[in-house]
Amino acid sequence: xxxxxxxxxxKLADVICDVMRSHGFxxxxxxxxxxxxxxxxxVSYDAVVLDLGxxxxxxxxLIGPIRKIAPIMPLLILTARDxxxxxxxxxxxxxxxxxxxxxxxxVLIARLRAIMRxxxxxxxxVLHYRGIELDxxxxxxxxxxxxxxxxxxxxxxxxxxxxxxxxxxxxxEFEESLYGFGEELSSNAIEVLIHRLRKKLDAAKSMVxxxxxxxxxxxxAERAA
Length: 225
Description:
Elements (H helix, E strand, L loop, with lengths): L1 E5 L3 H13 L3 E5 L2 H10 L4 E5 L8 H10 L5 E5 L4 H10 L3 E4 L4 H14 L8 E3 L2 E4 L4 E4 L2 E2 L4 H12 L7 H8 L10 H15 L4 E6 L3 E6 L3
Parallel strand pairs: 1-2, 1-3, 3-4, 4-5
Antiparallel strand pairs: 6-7, 7-8, 8-9, 10-11
Helix pairs in contact: 2-3, 6-8
């Protein structure tokens, strides 16, 4: 799941990004409203965490553009303002929830997952497919009684597969979902990632396989007899 964080305080943003990544999210960080708006226009995000106190303009002015591009995408507001009017305005303009600064990181993750559930993205729902079980809330995955020991990106790739089982996913979709802006990405990174994940599913005697459709992409489907 790829999240956009728009927050001008670098120290706070660094902590938030680290915590989100430790919970399996891919995170892009933007420090201004202008950069945030450009990111929203160019990438399909699973959720946005937006600070209202941005240096170039009020974060409230981003809610309209966000809702125009993604009407149901989960949007969590961060604010240090001691004014209920701003919070009410944000919620009425289309924000899903808010969090007042200072806050605990665990609460941020819980609130984010809650609005993603309400947004029908089911980030906190256990996913099942042909004997595979993946629980985003515990960051766990298993095949039957066999736990899968997965890297952060292997886990994210499996989650993407499970959410879109029996559907072909292109290489570009994996790159967009699993890698943030500025991350180094070799030409065969996705191929290597899929290869590692396939081996781990095979070792766990999974009933499914990752099928490669050359020139098109990959699909998680039932293993051929």
